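Milestone 3.1: sequence recovery, worked example.
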């Protein structure tokens, strides 16, 4: 792994345009261990690699268009600069932006990051992927989210996903057993690409098909990154487009994203749709504005209202008491968020027309103490925004 990182880092430079490492038999084999590798990087590696994933791993470019959606400056938030600096230090924040009513009210960078760079998303990508499902429904590629998953991924048939619907994948209520423990190298989330698969088989499908049924579909919520990876397979097969190309077509170009994005691929050459997008901070904020807008003309009418409403009460400690929609976390007060490990987030408050996007390098993947600090930061920023309403 270290040799791959060193060679790639020496070979490729620059951030304004996504440059990819081509997939080869050698690095495809290394990709099978990427879950365990990335989850257990030390702090120096996180700081160095989170803004440079395209220099390390194979992936696809999400092309931006020529016209950029403006983010004009607004009135600065009335919040002490010392409070911002303390929060950024406590949470290892590399970038933070607050946009209200379409205007930037706060924007800060640290840890060598800046507005021209990209930062990895981890599970923030899940909310992008679910939005592509909405686009595929509106475009007619997916007839209904109540269709069985096996209609679109027939090679899943005969396993735990028999009888599971697209909706149940979106809400992580398939009933299939899964372990999302980021501290366990033997967990499903760490091992899902670890086993070689025969030529022509999709690595995600091959792994997920082996998993046993735990409960009846639709009865229990369990967070499963592997299921978002299945959603990506489903969208790719339904649309016959790569996720990067479809995201570029439906969102990146028409919504005016400023920079190309980078989407890491698995050993089979398909985007890892449960994570691994690298996006600039301002474009993360634009994604929040897209959701806030309702996505008219891209997703079905009312899609985001359903996607950001709790579909079934989460039933384990992983949720921290939040609800879950279609790959969006549902928060109190009508707010919702895309959230990823190591401190990535896009939080949206429709009542305040507010978007807060944060890119971080937390010292651990998750933790109730870190989540509490992040939530306190959100509340402080929202309170400052409230003062101007």
């Amino acid at each position: 792994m270290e040799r791959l990182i060193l060679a790639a880092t020496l070979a490729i430079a620059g951030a304004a345009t996504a440059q990819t490492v081509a997939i080869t038999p050698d690095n495809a084999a290394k990709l099978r261990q990427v879950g365990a590798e990335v989850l257990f990087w030390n702090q120096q590696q996180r700081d160095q690699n989170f803004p440079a994933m395209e220099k390390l791993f194979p992936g696809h470019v999400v092309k931006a268009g020529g016209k950029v959606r403006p983010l004009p400056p607004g009135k600065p938030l009335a919040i002490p600069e010392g409070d911002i600096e303390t929060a950024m230090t406590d949470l290892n924040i590399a970038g933070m932006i607050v946009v209200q009513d379409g205007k930037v009210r706060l924007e800060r960078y640290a840890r060598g990051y800046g507005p021209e760079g990209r930062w990895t998303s981890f599970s923030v990508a899940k909310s992008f992927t679910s939005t592509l499902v909405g686009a595929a429904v509106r475009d007619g590629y997916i007839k209904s989210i109540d269709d069985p998953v096996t209609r679109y991924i027939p090679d899943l048939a005969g396993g735990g996903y028999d009888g599971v619907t697209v909706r149940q994948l979106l809400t992580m209520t398939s009933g299939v057993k899964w372990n999302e423990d980021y501290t366990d190298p033997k967990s499903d989330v760490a091992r899902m690409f670890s086993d070689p698969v025969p030529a022509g088989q999709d690595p995600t499908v091959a792994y997920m098909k082996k998993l046993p049924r735990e409960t009846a579909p639709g009865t229990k919520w369990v967070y499963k990154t592997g299921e978002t990876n299945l959603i990506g397979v489903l969208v790719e097969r339904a649309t016959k487009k790569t996720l990067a190309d479809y995201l570029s077509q439906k969102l990146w170009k028409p919504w005016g994203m400023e920079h190309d994005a980078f989407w890491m691929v698995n050993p089979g050459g398909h985007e890892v749709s449960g994570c691994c997008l690298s996006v600039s901070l301002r474009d993360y904020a634009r994604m929040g504005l897209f959701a806030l807008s309702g996505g008219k003309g891209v997703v079905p009418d009312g899609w985001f209202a359903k996607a950001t409403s709790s579909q079934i009460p989460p039933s384990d400690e992983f949720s921290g008491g939040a609800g879950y929609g279609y790959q969006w976390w549902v928060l109190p007060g009508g707010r919702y968020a895309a959230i990823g490990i190591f401190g990535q987030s896009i939080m949206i408050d429709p009542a305040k027309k507010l978007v807060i996007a944060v890119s971080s390098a937390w010292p651990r993947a998750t933790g109730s103490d870190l989540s509490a600090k992040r939530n306190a930061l959100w509340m402080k920023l929202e309170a400052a925004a409230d003062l101007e309403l």
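The CA atoms of residues 47 and 250 lie 31 Å apart. Residues 1-18 have pLDDT under 50 and may be disordered.
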